[in-house]
Fold:
Amino acid sequence: MAEEKRITPMAQDFSAWYIDVIKNADLMDYAPVRGCIIFKPAGYALWEAVQRGLDSRFKATGHENAYFPMLIPESFIMKEKEHVEGFAPELPWVTEAAGEKLEERLALRPTSETIIGWSFQKWIQSYRDLPVLVNQWANVFRWEKRTLPFLRTSEFLWQEGHTAHADEKEAREETIRMLNVYVDFMRNDLAIPVWEGQKTPSERFAGALDTYSIEAMMKDGKAVQAGTSHYMGTKFAEAFNIQFLDRDQTLKFVHTTSWGASTRLIGCIVMAHGDDKGLRLPPRIAPVQIVMIPVGPAKLREKVMARFDTLHAQLKAAGIRVKADAREEYSPGWKYNEYEMRGVPLRLELGPRDIDNNVVILVRRDTGEKLTVPQDNLADKVRALLEEIQQNMLNQALQFRQEHSFEAGSVAALGEILDKQFGFVLGGWCGEAGCEDQVKAATKATARCIPFHPPKQMPTCIACGKPSAATVWYARAY
Structure:
């Protein structure tokens, strides 16, 4: 008999619920090294789906994939002061190789601005060489003190885009363009709405002039920074002497950008859409969009399987990601629970009576609704239903965000909201770092972003009461 998998109710203990879901859905396992995880096939399939969705968008905007070494000389890291101060506490170092001590320590990359800046210096000589638009899919290392699978680990997978431009205007346009790529992917593929906006100086990426982010709300009301895009100005160009001969025959420093998203998006999918049965995967990102399960007595199995195989072939030929589970050692009921836990958007049941009536039973993971559907033109009906589920999951996420978005006029009011209701809180900020620090100390909430299009302009700072320079989303975060 198959082992029964149990999931802690979300309302009882959200952290325990999350671990139960990712373990029972077979997304990951713990590695022998602290803070590292093993991506099991089901988890890596989600990452591959993220890669496909983002990579196609990157290429559509003119970017090409490259790969740079994981080992970065210490002298490179030291070239940009803010960069080294930001990452030094998290850096793991290689100090010995082949039994000999290295002349220079090598960092396991926390990010690649330095090694890519060194490369750009060699590649760029003239305005004709610009812009340079590259992206890499890689792993990075940041020795985290507190870890949570997918959301915060010592080693994680990501993509990092790096570009070089002739002037500030073009580089800033690139920074916002790529932020909007992330917004589009989150909304249309992952069915997760985000607030996009600018980070406050204290939350800025180490070495950047300006950092922009997308912030997603999880079902416990906490925020996940789901992607970032940075305008670096000429900081790294000056550190690595990336100059080009412009049309006016003068040497100028390039303006650079970087932008990235990581496997924390898998955690986002789980926490934004999951329920007490397990995962709920949006159809566009789901590795399996529909699972087919035969039902009925063993003596009629041959009759069922003949039609079952035909329908499976039709769905597969239509480009639908379909899985057939005809294993006889597991009961249909066990399979129903298993695939609900794994978040498959649609389940198809086919039994002897269904064959007699020329129908199939379809069960939606998003609502639990059971539908009796004619077998004729099944692929078209399944495709339309998957699109309906995709849109419904986005609508549900939008409604949840609306119901858990609040306003506060003071630090005390903000703290009370987060303690009693949870979610994102809109507040005013005068622009002073001390007021931002006061909010964090009193409520454990951070300034997630200054939204480009805030739902409301807040007149005064929630900490000091002075006129507001910006409206900010505050939240506790992963």
Summary: The mean pLDDT is 96. The longest strand covers residues 155-165. The CA atoms of residues 221 and 423 lie 4 Å apart. Residues 378-403 form the longest helix (26 residues).
